[in-house]
Design goal:
Blueprint lengths: L1 H34 L8 E5 L3 E3 L13 E8 L4 E7 L6 E5 L4 E4 L8 E7 L7 E6 L8 E5 L5 E5 L17 E6 L5 E5 L7 E5 L5 E5 L1 E2 L5 E2 L2 E6 L4 E6 L4 E6 L5 E5 L10 E4 L5 E6 L4 E6 L11 E7 L5 E6 L6 E5 L4 E7 L6 H4 L1
Parallel strand pairs: 15-16
Antiparallel strand pairs: 1-24, 2-27, 3-4, 4-5, 5-6, 7-8, 8-9, 9-10, 11-12, 12-13, 13-14, 17-18, 18-19, 19-20, 21-22, 22-23, 23-24, 25-26, 26-27
Amino acid sequence: MSKKRGHPWLMLCAMALLVVLMMVLYGAMGRQHHTTGTTFRNDYQLMGRPLYKLDLDWPRNPELFNGQVYGVAVDQYAQVVYVAQRGDNVPKVLVFSTEGEFLMHWNTTTLEMPHGIFLADAASKKPTVWITDVGDGPYGHTVKQYSPSGTLLQVLGTAGKAGSSLTPLQFDQPAEIFVHESGEMYIVDGDGGMNNRLIKLSKDQEVIWMHGEKGSGLNQFYIPHSVTVDTAQRVWVADRGNKRIQVFNSITGEWLGTWGSCFTEDAPYSVRLTPDKKYFIVVQLNTNQISVLHAPPVGLIGQCKVVSVIQLADEVKPHLVDLDLKTGALYVAEIGAQQAQKFIPFSLGEGLGNYM
């Protein structure tokens, strides 16, 4: 009799346990669906050698991005990241720590439509932030230098007036600036405007050399969009409209070579060198890709070789990038997703040379 009475209780206990297990499983599936849903921040794939991974904790307050994010610059010594964004009634520059804390935004009215942003003199006690402005208003068509807190220090170009003159210096939608540690400047001028120029300026802002002809031949450009300089006196320019990277001697301006085979599907929008000088980081906006390319040795240009690709979600639209030259962390400005993201090397704690 006791066995017969106990049998229904065993069945009830088993059914209750089954219900609890189903609830736990459903909850876990729900959390997984929520985590891997169609959010820009989580949806990416790694192809080739997995060199970087997304830092989901940076920044800690992503809701602070309230405009289209166009550029990013890193001060590796102060551990600060500057993010340039566009939009009506939004701060044009947001400042975060490399750990993700929001520090401040710039209260400046002198920026209209920021495009490229570069941190100069990082190792000094007085680093400065350079920003190219492609706006059409009274402050546009210029390259501006700011203090880290957003105080305007100087303006290159003729504010509010697009042009091609070298005396006085004029720009038309300047895309990006690279300031060498010597103080010399390299400016790509022409994000769709009348100019298609690469200009080298001395530290006294005198023109040293220039390539300024529109076209697809050697030394010609069609929307030069990004520029960087390596330690072998080579200038690398993302020639966006021609779907290639052109290389020049930084001293003489002599053309050295072209990379094009890696960009048959989409043009290079940004080009930056990793701290160990072994790899280039190149983004392609329309295919939503971040590519890691081998940097050639001194004396050789050759053709580009893809080592690794970060495939972002559709419509993220990565635009320009910068790297933390101390840790190797990669920061990406994304127009479509309206955010900046941080990718860190897989072996960050082991030093940059070990993870690549």
